[in-house]
């Protein structure tokens, strides 16, 4: 079969990329096939042998640690619920990095950059990653650390990734116990006895499933092996940034820290334009006022302006959002009042305890 005939055959993109990375095709054929390939998102999977048939001849390719699917996430920065100033800053930083190949070569720096996206759940961290990939036209590698056996396999995964890619490690604070490995304290026998059998079995299972260490992860990000491949972004996400080891979050490993927090009115305006096609509406003033007094995540905001039926108009959708904001405000006030009452009771109890029992009598401090 000729080169043109092979290139003209329809092959699924995810299988096609395996062919390119696995076989030693002529470079002309490789380039020709790659022209029609969309970006890929790659997720961790077990080792497998990829097979294909050409005219009845079965070919077996080398093992790979990544499984490939077409990346079709529609998110862009234009549709993100984010403050315009922060959005512009992030876009400028990403575009600058993608065009800085000669600068990194001249300064002898590794062509990579680390990002830490942090904030409460539902603030759009995963959507942000998709928007980054679509902006730069990069492939996405979704790395699940708990599926990696040890540091050696982690390094192998890095080597197998391609240039112009984003390596994603989501929820880094709970993927593995990487936060306290350098400061673990020895537990007393009494503390060990308090552990239930269920907790012991859980710890044993975690230890047997993955042996990736903090040191191995740091080497993956910032040491000699991190230079393999080039032009790569490494993006971490977390809901609790304070849990992370400072060695992991320092500049050079996580170069840019981006906080994705509660929704503000400027971010909501983006959703309003996307969902309702409205620049102005009488209810927007009330929404702006409520958003200044209420903490609500973008995921909850986005759910309400979305039409639930063909009969839903802008007024109905925005009224639904106003109701959600009012309920969130009432819940926050109730929680705050409960906390104040609990704090007052604790202070009163502490004060009575410091005075000691009086038994209804006032005892003079001195007696003549």
Give the tally of structural domains. 3
End-to-end Cα distance, whole Å, is: 118 Å
Class inferred from helices and paired strands = alpha/beta
Helix content: 40-55%
Tally the beta strands: 9
- At the fourth CATH level, what is the homologous superfamily of the largest domain? P-loop containing nucleotide triphosphate hydrolases
Anisotropy-based shape: globular
Give the CATH topology of the largest domain: Rossmann fold
**Which CATH top level class of the largest domain fits?**
Alpha Beta
Q: Largest beta sheet: what is the strand line-up?
A: 4-1-6-7-8-5-9
* Major pleated sheet: 7 strands, mixed
Mean pLDDT: 75
Task: Write down the oligomeric state.
Answer: single chain
Strand content: 5-15%
Give me the Rg, rounded: 28 Å
H-E order: HHHEEEEHHEHEHEHHHHEHEHHHH
- If classified by CATH, what would the architecture of the largest domain be? 3-Layer(aba) Sandwich
Helix segment tally: 16
Note poorly predicted spans: 5-37, 45-62, 183-188
Biased composition (Basic and acidic residues): 186-206
Region (Disordered): 181-206, 329-368
Protein name: AAA+ ATPase domain-containing protein
Organism: Populus tomentosa (Chinese white poplar)
In summary, what is this structure?
The chain is α/β, with parallel strands linked by helices and 368 residues long.
């Amino acid at each position: 079969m000729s080169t043109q005939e092979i290139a003209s055959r329809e092959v699924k993109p995810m299988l096609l990329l395996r062919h390119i990375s696995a076989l030693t095709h002529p470079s002309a054929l490789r380039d020709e096939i790659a022209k029609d390939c969309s970006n890929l998102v790659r997720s961790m999977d077990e080792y497998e042998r990829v097979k294909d048939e050409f005219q009845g001849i079965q070919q077996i390719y080398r093992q790979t640690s990544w499984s490939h699917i077409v990346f079709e996430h529609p998110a862009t920065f234009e549709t993100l619920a984010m403050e315009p100033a922060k959005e512009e800053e992030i876009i400028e930083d990403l575009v600058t990095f993608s065009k800085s190949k000669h600068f990194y070569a001249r300064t002898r720096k590794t062509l990579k950059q680390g990002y830490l996206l942090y904030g409460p759940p539902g603030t759009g961290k995963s959507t942000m990653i998709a928007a980054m990939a679509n902006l730069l036209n990069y492939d996405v590698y979704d790395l699940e650390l708990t599926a990696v056996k040890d540091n050696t396999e982690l390094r192998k995964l890095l080597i197998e990734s391609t240039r112009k890619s984003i390596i994603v490690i989501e929820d880094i604070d709970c993927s593995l116990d990487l936060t306290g490995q350098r400061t673990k304290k020895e537990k007393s026998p009494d503390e060990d006895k308090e552990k239930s059998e269920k907790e012991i079995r859980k710890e044993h299972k975690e230890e047997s499933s993955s042996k990736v260490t903090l040191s191995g992860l740091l080497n993956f990000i910032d040491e000699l092996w991190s230079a393999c491949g080039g032009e790569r972004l490494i993006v971490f996400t977390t809901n609790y940034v304070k849990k992370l080891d400072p060695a992991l979050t320092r500049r050079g490993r996580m170069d840019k820290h981006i906080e994705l927090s509660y929704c503000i009115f400027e971010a909501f305006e983006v959703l309003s334009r996307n969902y309702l096609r409205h620049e102005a509406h009488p209810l927007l003033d009330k929404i702006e006022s409520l958003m200044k007094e209420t903490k609500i995540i973008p995921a909850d905001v986005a759910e309400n302006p979305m039409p639930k039926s063909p009969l839903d108009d802008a007024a109905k959708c925005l009224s639904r959002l106003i109701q959600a904001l009012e309920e969130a405000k009432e819940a926050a006030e109730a929680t705050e009042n409960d906390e104040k009452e609990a704090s007052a009771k604790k202070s009163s109890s502490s004060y009575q305890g410091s005075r000691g029992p009086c038994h209804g009598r006032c005892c003079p401090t001195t007696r003549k």
